[in-house]
Each structure stands twice: as structure tokens, then as C-alpha cells.
Amino acid sequence: MYRRKRYRSPEGGEGVQTWKRRRRSPCNEREWRRPPHIPRRSRRRSPSRSHRRDFYWGRHKRRQSNGVNFSEELSSSHSKSYSHSTHSPAHQSKGKEKTKTDKGHCHNSNHSKSASYSSSVSMRIWKSQPSTKDSQNVEDDKDGHLVCRTGERILERYEIVGDLGEGTFGKVVECLDLDKGKTRIALKIIRNVRKYRDAAQLEINVLRKIKEQDRENKNMCVLMRDWFEYHGHICIVFELLGKSTFEFQKENNFLPYPLAHIRHMAFQLCHALKFLHDNQLTHTDLKPENILFVNSDFNTSYNEKKKCEEKCVKNSSIRVVDFGSATFDHEYHTTIVATRHYRPPEVILELGWSQPCDVWSLGCILFEYYSGFTLFQTHDNREHLVMMERILGSLPRRMVYKTRKQKYFQNGSLIWDENTSDGRYVSKNCHPLKSYKTKDSPEHVHLFDLLSKMLEFSPALRITLKEALEHPFFNNLNPDERALGNRTTRDPISR
């Protein structure tokens, strides 16, 4: 970087001069220094705007010389079609004439794959392009939600008739499918945010897999009918279902479900999750909000014990929904899954998880159906673990010593102060599992035996869904309830 030069001063002394070396530009003045045995190199050009422009036109000329033409035309449905013609330069004019006559079809047999891809893309673009009248009214709010108004139409096919709910991912609206005789459907509209669009594509892949493996819809998983993109929003078309089991229980003042309904819903959930696990899928976000009744019509009666009106659903057939977090066995497993109240201990301790985590969540859900309140009402990891030990017994020492979360433990025991407000709350509200049993009849005993096996700390020792379906708790199911997996209608059943 710096050079030094010694010189003799006029006073007779010797000095040193230091100066910074200049970088010499590649100019023509240096060409005479080039030795004859070294070939001459092209001059280095700076990446200026003119250089990029020359490079573009050079590439454009090369593309024309290769005989590849890209034509873009607007069809009557405002979709874009891209056609390829791979001919030699000598026959380029003939290729153009052929492209004009065929309008967007590939003319080379070796490019059949690309032709089918372009046709599917153009069809998808056609579905995502609305009419001119629609495009004038489409707008998003500040959070990226599509603004939906009753009476508006999407793609001139789905007429909005009501709102079914809104969440972090987007919203769900009830629509009439005008192409299917005004059939009522549920349209899930994802927010126009990239991370939610990416998650929606993953959910679509899972729903496709489910539809392939369950063509007759016998395994109690929600049925995806179609999907499309609309002004940056991924839209998924589902069958129209009733209210969620959480919403119904909330509107019923959180009164417990009848034991017969709990048995029937548990039987269906075990079948649905077994179907997912057999296809190497884990739901990972099972909760009452993601379990919907097929038909949530109900009868009303007066509860003498509670001194209030009690609703009783006519048809306890259910469907599992929301596969946005579902994970295949071969895919990357995130560290934290499941909603807090239904999260298993192996996830809290970051010991890795697999399909048994769904079984734990199912046990928490069935307890909530039975009691009307959440088994683990907390938002803190340490408190969550303390509640587990209060209700289910001590954590296995193998899990305690294996976890990286040693900040929660000291000498193999949880660090916890019972004299704090949190400590007093846990001591007052958390009791052994069997103490929540309201009756000592065999049906109640069988239910709590099943719950204790689902809420086993060790995933390896936790009951499997195949074993759960053979549990004595399900012996009292009538034939009509056992066959309800074949039902796809929303009609009530006779009991």
C-alpha cells in the first residue's frame, strides 16, 4: 500500500521519502509494456448504465438468434399466455406464423412438460384475475385483511352472505357457490402478508394429501373443495360446518358436555388423528377452537342444578380443521408447537416432539369437555410444569436431567415458591386428576383412566390412538355413533 524510497540530500545526509501508491488505471499507455508472449486482454469496463444496456441488447440479439420468441397477449378473460417456438433462424418466420395461428400452444414435442406447466399457470392466473367491476371495489385494510361486504361477489362465483370469524391468519366468510346451485360454502381468505401466504400454501399441500387419502371424507378431517388467489389473497374453499366446540361451550356458559357426547367426540377425534398419523402427519395445534360440529343446532332445557338454561347439541358429529401447522414426519420440526394450554411437557422442556404430542392435546381437550374449564390455565413454563406435577405426579427424572432447561430445576426438583401469589393459586386450583371426577360410575372411571393414559409424561409410554380406540370407555357406543364417520350431511341423528 505504501512505498519508501531512499535518497541522498544536498546536505550530505541520507533520507527516506514515503508516499502512497496510486492504483493505475487500465489505459492504453501501458500497452507498450506488455511482453510479446502474453496475449492482449480486453479492457476492463466499469459496470456503468451503458454497459448494462449493451449487455441487455446483446442478450436480446442472442435470444433472437436462438429462435426463441416470447409473445404476450391478453385473452378475453384477461389472462396472460406465454408461448415458446424453438425453431432454427432459417425457419423463424414460419415459427412466428405458426405461433400466431395457434395462440399460445407449444409446437415442439420435446417441450410438452413446459406446455402443460404454462397451461396450468395460465388457468391459475385466470382464476386470480377478477372482472373489471370487481377490481374497482377490492380493497384491504391496514392489516392486510380483505374488506368483505355482504352481497359482493368474488370471481363472479362466490357471493358473500355472512361473516364466520376472523383470526390472525385472515377471515372466514360464508358464501353461495353460484356455479354449484348456490351451495353454501365457507371461504377462508388469507391476509395479504407474505408469511401468511406461505403458511397457506403449506396448509393447501396438507389438505391435498388428506383429500387424496380420504376421497369419501370418512375420517373427520375438513374437506377442501378448491383454492385460488384473489388480489394477493390465498382463498381456500371448504365445506360449510357449524360452530366450534369451544364457541358452543362458551355460549352455553361453559357447562360440561354430556358424557355421551364426550364419548362420541373422543371416538371421532381418535379416528381422525389416527388417520393423520398413519399418513405421517402431526396436527400440532389441536384445541377446541379447531374442532367444529358438522351441525351445531341444539335443543334447550332448564338445568335445575345450575339454575340456568342449558343447550344440548342435536348432532355431535365433528370435523378437525386448521392444518396450517400440520407437519409431516420428514419435515423440519420447530422447537415450540401447540397452543399453551394443550402443550405437552416434551415441548416445554425442548426434548423434541412427534405424533404423541397430539395425544396429550386430546387428553386436555376431553378434560375441558368434561369439566368446562381448562386443565392447565397458565402462561408460564415453570408454572405449567408445577401444575403438571400437582395434577399428574412428579416428572420422570430422565426428562429432568435430559432437558436443556435446567434453569427450572435444582437437584432434580422444580424451583417453586408456594408462598407467592402464583404459588397460592396453584395450590388452591390444582389437584390430582381423579379428584375432578364428578361420579364414580364405570363410565366416569373409564374416562379418567383413558385421560391418565393420554396425559402420560413420557411420550414413549403414552397411549397410542390405536390402543385408545380399543379402550373400554368406547364400549357403550351405539352402532349409529360408530358409523358416523361415513356421514357427510349436516342432518341431526336420532338417539
Automatic annotation (TrEMBL):
PROSITE patterns given in the database record: PROTEIN_KINASE_ATP, PROTEIN_KINASE_DOM, PROTEIN_KINASE_ST
Q: Where is the composition biased (Low complexity)?
A: 76-88, 109-122
Its subcellular locations are: Nucleus
Q: Which reaction does it catalyse?
A: L-tyrosyl-[protein] + ATP = O-phospho-L-tyrosyl-[protein] + ADP + H(+); L-threonyl-[protein] + ATP = O-phospho-L-threonyl-[protein] + ADP + H(+); L-seryl-[protein] + ATP = O-phospho-L-seryl-[protein] + ADP + H(+)
The cross-references to Pfam families, in alphabetical order and at most eight, read: Pkinase (PF00069)
Provide one Gene Ontology cellular component: nucleus
Stated name of the protein: dual-specificity kinase
Source organism = Hymenochirus boettgeri (Congo dwarf clawed frog)
Q: Which residues form the Protein kinase domain?
A: 158-474
Q: Which family does it belong to?
A: Belongs to the protein kinase superfamily. CMGC Ser/Thr protein kinase family. Lammer subfamily.
Q: Name one GO molecular function term.
A: protein tyrosine kinase activity
Keywords, ordered alphabetically:
ATP-binding, Kinase, Nucleotide-binding, Nucleus, Phosphoprotein, Serine/threonine-protein kinase, Transferase, Tyrosine-protein kinase
Q: What is its EC number?
A: 2.7.12.1
Which InterPro entries does this chain map to?
Answer: CLK_kinases, Kinase-like_dom_sf, Prot_kinase_dom, Protein_kinase_ATP_BS, Ser/Thr_kinase_AS
Q: Which SMART domains did the record assign?
A: S_TKc
Q: What class of enzyme is it?
A: transferase
Ranges of Basic and acidic residues composition bias in the record? 94-105
Q: Which segments show compositional bias classed as Polar residues?
A: 65-74
List positions binding ATP: 188
